[in-house]
Write a structure and sequence with these properties.
Blueprint (H helix, E strand, L loop, with lengths): L2 E6 L7 H9 L4 E4 L8 E5 L2 E5 L12 E4 L4 E2 L1 H13 L7 E4 L3 E2 L2 H14 L11 H10 L5 H4 L2 H22 L7 H15 L3 E2 L1 H10 L4 E4 L23 H6 L10 E5 L4 E3 L12 H9 L12 E3 L1 E2 H11 L3 E4 L2 H7 L3 E9 L5 E2 L6 H6 L1 E8 L18 H14 L3 E5 L7 E3 L6
Parallel strand pairs: 1-10, 1-11, 2-5, 2-10, 5-7, 6-8, 7-9, 11-15, 14-16, 15-19
Antiparallel strand pairs: 3-4, 12-13, 16-17, 16-18, 19-20
Bound molecules: inosinic acid.
The site of inosinic acid has 20 residues, from helix 4.
Amino acid sequence: MSVVVVMGAQWGDEGKGKFVDLLASKADLVVRATGGSNAGHTVWANGQQYKLHQIPSGVLYKGTLCVIGNGVVLDPEKLMEEMDYLEAKGVDLSGLRISAGAHLVLPYHVRLDGAEEDRKGANKIGTTRRGIGPAYMDKYARTGIRVVDLMDRDEFLSKLTAQVEAKNELLTKIYGLPGFTVEEIAEPYLAYAERIRPYVANTVELLNDAIDAGKNILFEGAQGTLLDVDFGTYPYVTSSHPIAAGSIIGAGVGPTRVDRVVGIVKAYTSRVGEGPFPTELLDEAGSRIREAGHEYGTTTGRPRRVGWLDLVMVRYACRVSGITDLAVPHLDTLAKTGIERIKVCVGYRLPDGTVTREFPVGLKALAQVTPVYEEFPNWSFDPAKGTPRQYEDLPEGARRYVECIEEFTGVPVSILGVGSERSDAIYRTSFFS
Ligand code: IMP
């Protein structure tokens, strides 16, 4: 048995969905423990595309239990949409389990998220406007409403009444926006409660029992290291912990139970939202990567900012999460761009001319670094040979690229992504017995 955490080592959108889906084929349980409907995981399976937001990607395998942990901020309205979408595609949801301890995203959180972004104007964070920040604010202010409350009509109405009163003060007096009535939230939410009820469980017991019983557990990370509220490019971050530790606190299992931490590193870098991005490409090369990689947000549809692979950042992610294995998707995407020389950032030049491998803490310092690049000739996969199936089948340029990642980070690249289908992956190790 194994407990494996899969997490993003960049700014999210690394292609976690694909690897989670691949590893989920051997997992008994797949767990989402952080973030909320801000996440968008795209998975290609059986020639169909699936876009997932809150439900773990393991749902595509019959018989796999899919847990939404206490660390998630759950938007029941969006969950209903996602359940409808999956059911319409014939996906069986009977394995879904929702933690009674997860906090809820309520309509006032969504309105407050947008209001605060609009108030910030040019200084906005560029959030997904899904109410994530305000929902976590309530959690940490100890004024949040949880799934367990939603399951109890009286408890829910009492907490909701107090919150609507407080949030209306903010919305009307600070932001000049309309408030909510208790009824307009309570009526749909109490209906959602009945649809959710069969799936609500004590997921701490469920998960710990499963580990004790020797099951294979996969933690599906959301967002990425540089969006972590503690370790990311603050304040241009999300309000949760996408790093590996976030998965365990968001699920209620101890750190000693985790066997492997897989960091997903896209072969280039992308980010959505605002904030400094040292290796960003604003030229033709950037457009080519964006088009080849379909770099448009799953949740918002926004074009993503793209740039070269930044190993200073990836090395930092490896340290913060104790990453044991790297997985590198999108090698085929770089091949498809036809760009002649592919660059990789292997150091930051500081204003005084010195070069460092350290990722700085402050945004001002990050904005002042100049990337130091190593260059690689582009590689193309020989169409006559089809999609590479083994590491040795990769063109030499691609292998040198992978070896550069391993040397710089000190972490083995254990899985490579060479296409969008489930089978388009090369494993150099096995994860679940
Ligand atoms: P929020 O999570 O909606 O509050 O957004 C905060 C920051 O995180 C913004 O820059 C978002 O674009 C970014 N973000 C949130 N979720 C994702 C994701 O799943 N992928 C990439 N960026 C994300």
